[in-house]
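Allow me, if you will, to draw on your knowledge of protein folds for a short while. I am sending you one protein, given as its amino acid sequence and as whole-number tokens for its backbone shapes. Kindly check, if you would, that the fold set down in the tokens agrees with what the sequence suggests. The record follows directly beneath this note:
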Amino acid sequence: MKKVEAIIKPFKLDDVREALAEIDITGMTVSEVKGFGRQKGHTELYRGAEYMVDFLPKVKLDIVIDDEMLDRCIDAIEGAAKTGKIGDGKIFVSDVERVIRIRTGEENEEAV
């Protein structure tokens, strides 16, 4: 199994969720996060003073899937989240050793 972590622009969340639902991926955890990469934030004016906003709002999706779904999952996220502008986000993929559904005790693929 694989864990896919995607950091995307907040306004792209619905598009990504719909793209994943089209390939039968419905389970995910979504978190509001802040961060920056190459875009390095921006400056804003508040009450006449300029200040640096280093951390920009983003959305993080955590998805655990079977290995054979990985490429379709990545393609769906990329296609739906891409604007072509700086700050579109990143996708991280890692191995998952074990998953346990607390309610039933099911493990691994049955628990996802």
